[in-house]
Each structure stands twice: as C-alpha cells, then as structure tokens.
Request: fold
Amino acid sequence: MQLTTPLLFATPCDDEEDNMATLCCHSDQGQMFLLTRYPDEDTVDLTLDDEPSTLDGIKITFSAKRLLLEVAAGDTDALKGDETLEIVLTSDGNDLAEIDETLRIILNGTGTYVSEL
Reply:
C-alpha cells in the first residue's frame, strides 16, 4: 500500500493528550494515517482512515522522502491485507528532526527503527 503526502506531522510528547507521541498525515487522496503511543504503554496504535489497530510488531524505515512501515504477518489487517505501507513525501517542508525524534519514542522497545537521514 502506498500513500503520497506533502507533510508528516509529528509530536514527540503531546501534553494535552497525556504525553502521547503522535505521527500523522493526510494523503493526496484524503486518506488519514495516524501512529501513536502513550509513554506508559508497550503497544503502538495505528489508525488508517477510521480503522484503529494495535500492532504487535513493526519496523519503520525513514528518509527525507519516504517512510516505510512494515508490520508483522499477524497485523496485516491494519494495512487492509498488506504487509507494508509506504508514505512518499512530496515536499521539503517536513520537520525531519521532530519526525525522527517522534519515531524513536514510538518505537523504543516496541519495534525497529531505521533512520536514513
């Protein structure tokens, strides 16, 4: 599965949401992607459009132009049957440092993070 978006929005610690780390975007086709984790939980939540899922295993590879999310075989329902979600970034307006920090927080102890920055 692939989404194209100009911007990823990242919040490493949202005070108004009990310090939840959040990464989200809206695709050019109007699809919503939301990846979250509360600091006191050992799970990562993924919402694609309006369908929330809790992920057991996740790997994310991030570069300046792409975020590749890979889920465990048992979590493919979160991606509508796919094992991967590629988000292509079409603009240079992304705060790469904040996205990187947020992904490190979300995946710390819960998944694998590969930074290509």
About this structure: The longest helix spans residues 96-107. The CA atoms of residues 6 and 91 lie 5 Å apart. The first strand starts at residue 2 and ends at 5.
